[in-house]
Amino acid sequence: MKRTLTVCPYCGTGCMLHLLSEGGRLIGVEPSSTHPISRGGLCIKGWNAFGFVHHPDRLTEPLVRKDGVLVPTGWQEALSMVVRGLQSVQARHGKDAIMFASSAKATNEENFLLMKLARRVFGTNNIDHCARLCHSSTVTGLAETFGSGAMTNSIDCIDRAKLIFVIGSNTTEQHPLIGSRIIRAVNKGAQLIVADNRRIRLSRHANLHLRHRNGSDVALLLAMMHVILAEGLEDREFIAARCENFEEFAAIARDWPPERAAAITGLGAEEVVAAARLYATSPAAMIFYSMGITQHSHGVDNVRAVAALAMLTGNIGRPGTGVNPLRGQNNVQGGCDMGVLPDLYSGYQKVSDPVVREKFRAAWGGGPLPETPGLPLTLAMNAASKGQIRAMFIMGENPIISDPDQSHAREALQSLELLVVQDIFLTETAQLADVVLPAACFAEKDGTFTNTERRIQLVQKGVEPPGEARADWQIICELARHAGSQVMNYEDTAQIMAEIASLTPAYGGVTHQRLAPYGLQWPCPSADHAGTPLLHTVQFSRGKGRFALIGYRQPAEMTDARFPYTLTTGRTYFHWHTGSMTRRTHLLHREEPKAFVEINPVDAAAIGVRNGGLVTVASRRGELTVAARVTGTVPEKVLFMPFHFMEGAANALTNNVLDPESHIPEFKVAAVSIRRGQ
Fold it and tell me: Measured between alpha carbons, how far is 419 from 527 in angstroms, rounded to an integer?
């Protein structure tokens, strides 16, 4: 039996595990007993991380559409069709008529190469990835306030926190090993505030559970800061030494007494006061948040408010403190780091900066690189539906299920002249493609992932990919060669990382050899640097932390007489993202086999439905019929649906309105109705 140490392919926690293989097939996994995060444990998805790898649905050969049907073909024909198609669209409609979508499930090396393919080979900055749908608000908001859009502390800091404030994160289900560590910290004496209107599992351990209305986070946080200022609980010394724009911000916060926030949030004013005092009087308070904060039409303001709360109380730059966004996918942090963003190269270097462009041009050769920022993925989908984007190359993502307003996403993709999908399964999106390229999964290739705490870790090949499937990086290199470019000739992924390090200051000291066994946390600027577990210790990345001026804006779609319920969406413990992997894992599918909607018992009684009965949920964008899960987890007039299930796709209902700065959709608030199904 062979044991291969690698990284779990699911959430951004970054647990490491051993793949167990025999005769070229995976037969199980073992957790790494000495890994600093997983520490001998795995969640249910991690224990079953091998379950989809040998599934009979795996793509094993390229497919091309002929006479309306996808049929097998050879690699040469498929690659030639892709390159000819992209070049033809550009020749007729311009360089920016094509869009590249990269993947948070692919390695750093593969994301870097797709960014390079888009910019150097095809001459467009139209490249983005799923961070647009989950944490683009974080990148925008924390970059403005702190100078870096990443988690400020390490997961180990949980053990040193005296208070933990979790807002907009169902941590025990979405990042289970982080959630269990929070519970252990509480059991050892740490205090816990949970702000979430669902009665999530973590709330059972909380000193204070704030069940505020969806979309009212800014009002809650401003009122907490009002209390802190009114009672003199702010850290004046920290603010004076390390922050700017405080007085202008304080004037806004002072206009938000708890009573004003109570009317918006649905909380009692005394709950807001209690939360403010608990957080501000703790010697070390740590904030965790996730997509419950970011996926709003005012997501950036939510992040700014969280950052302001931490700065106001001096809870930055020390162990057990910080602002810690939890990344949802295994390498969404790495995807951002690698520059698969329309306005940034790797290391968050701006494409609009001529010095940066010249650095990359000199390294890659050729003529000038495009200088105008490209389209965010959400705007590209809108542009496709209007005929402005004519071709898309999608690597390892499934927007038919993950994008808001499913009918709009389908219409956009079907309107394209060319759709290319590179994936491990024939996903719902791949079924619409003109060319499908079969890729290797995490267990079948080498490279690196970067987890939510900025830890860069080695991914190692345990088994061979099925049939003719290839690693994403190898396919990208072949596409470059078919396009006539010689800028992507690599022997292995270690060589790609060497190029990344040479162009990306935060990764400057990173090599594959240095990452064994458990990685390094960026910034790691030089070969003799040990990595950085804690950011902003002496000063912020931008110099002084900035108090951003924010105001409360209500969600874009409020309830009314026709649609009197608020729908919010998310994940479940047993499934992940669009379900392409977990729904092909027997045990996980067995535990959660079908779509459902959570409804409060009072609301269930009002429409005459029992637990397990069918209900129809409708919004202004569509309707679907699923099973009712009658539970007090959700408050009255609030419904929750997971988005994993194509046959009950929550994103058939969600609103495609975007945050004006980060262009993230408002997944967390949609006005809906519900009635008994037939």
Answer: 42
Claim to verify: residue 68 and residue 159 sit in the same structural domain: no
Q: Assess if residue 384 is contained within a domain.
A: yes
Q: Where in the sequence is the domain holding 433, given as residue range(s)?
A: 63-129+344-521
The pLDDT of residue 310 is above 80: yes
Is the CB of residue 468 less than 8 Å from the CB of residue 60?
A: yes
Do 402 and 458 belong to one domain? yes
HSE-CB of 564 using CA atoms within 13 angstroms: 9
Which CATH number goes with the domain that contains 592? Answer: 2.40.40.20
Burial classification of residue 2, based on how many CB atoms lie within 10 Å of its CB (0-12 exposed, 13-18 middle, 19 or more buried): middle
Strand partners, 324: 288
How confident is the model at residue 405, as a pLDDT? 84
Q: Using the predicted structure, report yes or no on whether residue 23 has a pLDDT greater than 90.
A: yes
Residues 180 and 244 in one domain: yes
pLDDT tens-digit map of 119-158: 999 999 999 998 888 888 999 999 999 999 999 999 999 9
State yes or no: pLDDT of 678 exceeds 80. no
pLDDT of residue 349: 96
Backbone CA torsion sign across 231, 236, 240, 244: negative
| pLDDT tens track for 159-168 | 999 999 999 9
In a domain, 527, yes or no: no
Contact 293, 667 (CB under 8 A): no
pLDDT of residue 645: 87
Q: Is the pLDDT of residue 624 over 80?
A: yes
Q: Are 122 and 140 contained in the same domain?
A: no
